[in-house]
Each structure stands twice: as structure tokens, then as C-alpha cells.
Design goal:
The complex is a heterodimer.
Chain A: E1 2-8, H1 13-21, E2 29-35, E3 42-46, E4 49-53, E5 56-65, H2 70-81, E6 89-95
Helix pairs in contact in A: 1-2
Chain B: H1 6-31, H2 39-66, E1 69-70, E2 74-75, H3 99-117, H4 127-150, H5 155-159, H6 167-185, H7 201-220, H8 228-256, H9 261-275, H10 284-301, H11 304-308, H12 316-334, H13 352-383, H14 390-395, H15 397-402
Antiparallel strand pairs in B: 1-2
């Protein structure tokens, strides 16, 4: 089992969600986050005082997948989230030790 | 002569209500500019003043400011508790409206003036000390200065200083007091290296719009009658506000590359401040020039605090101090007897002496208000403490001073 964490541009969320729903994904968690990478922040001006905003808004997707689904999902996210401009985000893949469905107590892949 | 005119009276009652509405307008104007953890604290600064200064004004404020003169410097306490201030007109101030109408109109000015100062120490003042400061400031600074400029027998009034609706008494007075306050209280924690973003600019713009609306009462109402002079002041007020809105935005557009909404709101207020002393003494084209100049001047005045290193949180000095000073001096340039016979001509209308008189009124107000405000604040800092604890400043005034939060989202 793997956990996919993807940092994406917020306006891409709907497109990615629809693409992933076509892949029989069981669930997904999203969080509005702020951060910086290579993309520069933006400037805000209040009464002539300029502020450089380093942390820019992004959306973080989290999905837990059976190993078999991973390549297809990664490909889909990478293709859908891509605009070709700097700041498109990153995808991380992490191993998952265990999954437990709280309601039934099921564990492992069937609990995903 | 002492007959009550119903039109005048109705107009002054409405104008008083308009000026009253400026203070909650100011609360929104300031409230939107602070961080969200201080929105209630900032609004409260203005709102509590509606309560506090009303009481002060009824008990001794009106008497000290407008009561029977003592040596040109202060009104006596003969009118303590509004004793003798009744329905019959007091013809030396306003012969066609009840004396109480004049009193309540003036009360609204006494309320908004200390509220203007609160922008400078926003986000860090201790509420209890703030309340005491406001009471002392009204008593020791506002009332005497109002008496000098507007009171019968007041020495600046007798000197011939022109201040139609309160450029010196309200704006220079509060603006320079704000400078003293910024110096004594010190910078906000993190100022200069953390960003201080306005948390709700739509709120600020709403506040600016209410101020603009209320200012018609402030300036036109200062004619103290529903007459041609009131119309003239109404027109100049609007022209100057509009011109400064435009010129501030245009200046920052040229200088910083973007026209901002906060700039539009700030420009409107700067124009309104600058026209205040001149409103009933100048014509429409003069108002246009005063407004255009005020927008540019106040925009650059905002940068003073970065250069000089004080933290005037919401730019009271740059807008009210500088705008008010400019307006008072501009009155000495643009005033014309063709507009108001009771006024005088300014430099551009052949009377250079008027500019000198205006400069004296400005200088005296600047020095007196600065020094007395500084003393009041120093004494309060030693006795009660001006600032909240660091931890409380971090948590925000809403939670630390009022046990409330502005937003539960």
C-alpha cells in the first residue's frame, strides 16, 4: 500500500478529482495549504508599502492506494495537474504500514 | 433675531446625526485595516468613545469648549451639566436654532476627534489606559483648542483664524496627537519584519464611504443653517473628496504600478480632511485644487513613518496631521469673501496676512497638542502602563482585552 501526497495548483483540483474518479479511487483527502518552492511569491501593496508574499496557496491531495493502482494514479495526476509553468507542484509516494477501517475493524488493502 | 428657524433646526439635527454616524464609519475604516485578531478591539476604540465623550461633553466638555470665556483660553464651568443650555437660541453661536442643537452638533465633533487618534496605537494599547487617556485628552487638549478656535472670546478666533469645520481643532489636533502617541507607545511587535496586512478591505472601503457620507453633515452642517453657505460647503466637500480619491490613486499607480482600493479609500479621506477648514470659505475650483493636491501630498506623507521610524499603525499622522495642516494653510490661500462674507480673503485673493494667521493657528495647535499629549501619555505609561503584555499583543486585543473574537468561521 502506498500513500500519495500531491501539492497542486488550487484551480486544478476539480479537473484532477474528476480524472481520478474515473480510476475507481476509493477516497481522497484535500487540504488548503500554503508554501513555497521554486515559484516566486507575489507582491501585495498597502498604502505604498510592498510586501513580498512567499507562501502561496496550494492544495494538498492525500490518497491511500493499493500498489497496483499507483502507476496509473501518478500518471493521471501528473498529466492533469501540469500546466507547464513553474509552480505546478510535486507528487510524493510514501509506504503505508497499515490501514484500519474504524467501523468494521478490517485491515490491509480491503480497508482502503 | 432669536426666533427659531425650523428649516435650520431640522438641518442641524440631520447634520448632527450624520456626524454621529462618522464615528462607527471610522470604526469600520480602521477595523478593516488591522489584523483579524484586533478587529473588535479597534472597532471598540471608536464605539466606546461615543459613550465616554458624550458623558464628558454633557458634564464639563461643552462648557469648557464653548462656555463663557476665561481669558481667551478656556470656557468656564458655568454651563456644567448643560446648565442654562436650553431650547432658546444662543445667538453668538447660532441665532436660528435651539442652543441644544448647536451643543449636540458640536458634541459629535468632540466624539470623532479622539476616535481619529486611535488609529495610531491600534493593535497594542491597553484598553483601561486608553479610556483614561481619552478622557484626559478631551479635557486637556480638545476642549481648550476648540475654545481657542471656535469659542466666543477664544484667542485664535479673535486673531482671525479661519477654520470652517475643524481642520485645526479636529484634524491637526488629532493628527499631531497621533504622532506623540506613536512615539510614546512604540512599534507593534514584529513591525518592520512581519507583514501587517489589512484583514478586510471591503470593511475599510465601507467605512470610508460612511465617512464621506457623514462628512456632508460635518462640513455643510458647519454653516449652522439650511442656507446657501451650507450648499457651498456641501459642494466643495464632495469635489475635494472626489479629486483626492482620484489623485491618490493616480499617484500610486504612477509610483508603485498598481491602483489600489485602499488608496482610493485613503484618498477620499485625505481630501475630506483637507477641505474641512476651507469648506465654507472657498469656491468649487479652489476645492478641486485642494483635493488634487491633498491626494498627492498625503500619499507621500504616508512614507514619513518609514523614513522616521515610528509606527503610526493606520496613518493618522500622514492623513489627518498632514492633510489637516495642508487644508488649514490652503484656506489662507484660497479663501474668498465672495464665497463667505463672514470669512476673509486668502493670499490668492489679495490678502497675504491671512496665510500668516492660519500658520499661527496651525503652529500653536501642533505644539500645544503634541506637548500635552506627550505628557499625558508619559504619565499614564508610568502609572498604568500603555501597552498590553507581549503575550496579549500576540493573542490580539480582541481576546486579551475583550474576551471575544471577531470571526468564528
Amino acid at each position: 500500500m502506498k500513500k500519495i501526497e500531491a501539492i497542486i495548483k488550487p484551480f486544478k483540483l476539480d479537473e484532477i478529482k474528476e480524472a481520478l474518479q474515473g480510476l475507481d479511487i476509493k477516497g481522497m483527502t484535500i487540504t488548503e495549504v500554503k508554501g513555497f518552492g521554486r515559484q516566486k511569491g507575489h507582491t501585495e501593496i498597502y498604502r505604498g508599502a510592498e510586501y513580498i508574499i512567499d507562501f502561496i496557496p496550494k492544495v494538498k491531495l492525500e490518497l491511500i492506494l493499493d500498489d497496483s493502482q499507483v502507476p496509473q494514479v501518478l500518471k493521471t495526476i501528473q498529466e492533469t495537474a501540469r500546466t507547464g509553468k513553474i509552480g505546478d507542484g510535486k507528487i510524493f509516494v510514501l509506504p503505508v504500514g497499515e490501514v484500519i477501517r474504524i467501523r468494521t475493524g478490517e485491515t490491509g488493502s480491503s480497508a482502503i | 433675531m432669536n426666533a427659531i428657524n425650523t428649516g435650520d433646526t431640522a438641518f442641524i439635527l440631520i447634520a448632527s446625526a450624520l456626524v454621529m454616524f462618522m464615528t462607527p464609519g471610522l470604526a469600520l475604516f480602521y477595523g478593516g485595516m488591522v489584523r483579524s485578531k484586533n478587529v473588535l478591539g479597534t472597532i471598540m476604540h471608536s464605539f466606546i468613545i461615543l459613550g465616554l465623550v458624550t458623558i464628558e461633553w454633557v458634564l464639563w466638555g461643552y462648557s469648557n469648549a464653548f462656555g463663557p470665556d476665561l481669558g481667551g483660553v478656556i470656557g468656564s464651568l458655568d454651563w456644567f451639566g448643560l446648565s442654562g443650555v436650553g431650547i432658546a437660541p444662543f445667538k453668538d453661536y447660532a441665532g436660528t436654532i435651539p442652543h441644544q442643537a448647536f451643543m449636540i452638533f458640536q458634541m459629535m465633533f468632540a466624539i470623532i476627534t479622539p476616535a481619529l487618534i486611535t488609529g495610531t496605537f491600534a493593535e497594542r494599547i491597553k484598553f483601561s489606559t486608553f479610556v483614561v487617556f481619552t478622557l484626559l485628552w478631551c479635557t486637556l487638549v480638545y476642549n481648550p483648542v476648540a475654545h481657542w478656535v471656535w469659542g466666543i472670546g477664544g484667542w485664535l478666533r479673535d486673531l482671525g483664524a479661519l477654520d470652517f469645520a475643524g481642520g485645526t481643532v479636529v484634524h491637526i489636533n488629532s493628527g499631531i496627537a497621533a504622532l506623540a502617541a506613536a512615539l510614546v507607545i512604540g512599534k507593534r511587535k514584529g513591525y518592520g519584519h512581519e507583514p501587517f496586512h489589512p484583514h478586510n478591505l471591503p470593511m475599510t472601503i465601507m467605512g470610508a464611504a460612511i465617512l464621506w457620507f457623514g462628512w456632508f453633515g460635518f462640513n455643510a452642517g458647519s454653516a449652522l443653517g439650511a442656507n446657501g453657505l451650507a450648499v457651498s460647503a456641501f459642494v466643495t466637500t464632495h469635489i475635494a473628496a472626489a479629486a483626492a480619491t482620484f489623485s491618490w490613486v493616480f499617484t500610486e499607480w504612477m509610483y508603485r504600478g498598481k491602483p489600489t482600493t485602499l488608496g482610493a479609500a485613503s484618498g477620499a479621506v485625505a481630501g475630506l480632511v483637507a477641505i474641512t477648514p476651507a469648506a465654507g470659505f472657498v469656491g468649487p475650483l479652489s476645492a478641486l485644487m485642494i483635493g488634487l493636491a491633498a491626494g498627492v501630498l498625503c500619499y507621500f506623507a504616508i512614507f514619513l513613518k518609514h523614513k522616521l521610524g515610528y509606527d503610526d499603525a493606520l496613518d493618522v499622522v500622514g492623513v489627518h496631521g498632514v492633510g489637516g495642516t495642508f487644508g488649514a494653510l490652503a484656506t489662507g490661500l484660497f479663501a474668498s469673501k465672495l464665497i463667505n462674507e463672514a470669512g476673509n480673503n486668502g493670499l490668492f485673493f489679495g490678502n497675504p496676512v491671512q496665510l500668516g494667521i492660519q500658520a499661527i493657528a496651525v503652529g500653536v495647535t501642533l505644539v500645544y497638542s503634541f506637548v500635552v499629549t506627550l505628557i499625558i501619555l508619559k504619565v499614564l505609561d508610568w502609572t498604568m502602563g500603555l501597552r498590553v503584555e507581549h503575550e496579549d499583543e500576540q493573542a490580539g486585543l480582541d481576546l486579551s482585552q475583550h474576551s471575544e473574537v471577531g470571526y468564528n468561521l
